[in-house]
Amino acid sequence: MTGGTAEGTPQGAQGAVVVVAGATSASGVAAVRALRAAGALPIAVGSDAGRLAAAFGEPGAGPHDGGVAQRVCDLADFEAVQALAAGLREEFGRIDGVIHLVGGWRGGKTLADQSDEDWEALSRTSIATLRNTSRAFYDDIADSPRGRFVIVSSTLIEHPRAGYANYAAAKAAAEAWVRAMATGLASEQSERAEGPRPQASAAVVLAVKALLDDATRAAHPDRRFPGYTPVAALAERVVRLFSEDAAGINGARLDLTA
């Protein structure tokens, strides 16, 4: 464990070991880069070694070799995620954070045309991967003096339309799961029935209308993208979570719409 700071006091991202799930997405690449710039040790996790290498170059093994630590894992497979967690725990000694950036958009025009195929895909990417990573790394987050578990959700679920009922339902389920995780973390720390201690760990939802990356800007140079959140801004917000009071952000839903 990282020492030198009183338990419950924010320590920042410096030296934190952080798993970035869905690392080859534009938001994942931005998060890995921002965490590295802040002095953290991000571990880029994706489903394809080639895409990981294309995004981050030759994989690194540790904080001093100049490369980004990379791991391939099917996050929809709980046993695979458990093996990932065990391996990282053994290699790095601890895990201080998990940034869950796995998901995707599936939508239609009406409620009636919300397909089973879309629901199954959303259930796999948005819900199954979240359940698996949170369960496999829960004890790591709870034990860390600066544990952070973060997902990205959508402001669209506040006023869901019939054409994206599948998507809104999956995101709502993911948010409920994270709130339950936050309750668990609080019950083990600041709200313990016996011997409560300062809240050190937090599960957080970051809500966006949509994410904006350079490729999307380049493809639509005349579009303004009102309310979109640049992936760099999302990544910067992720890093700041490690410097904020866990009691103030645990269970929070933070709106990042621009």
From TrEMBL:
The keyword DNA-binding does not apply. The keyword S-adenosyl-L-methionine does not apply. PROSITE patterns: ADH_SHORT. InterPro entries: NAD(P)-bd_dom_sf, Sc_DH/Rdtase_CS, SDR_DHRS6-like, SDR_fam. Keywords: Oxidoreductase. Belongs to the short-chain dehydrogenases/reductases (SDR) family. This is SDR family NAD(P)-dependent oxidoreductase. It comes from Sinomonas halotolerans.
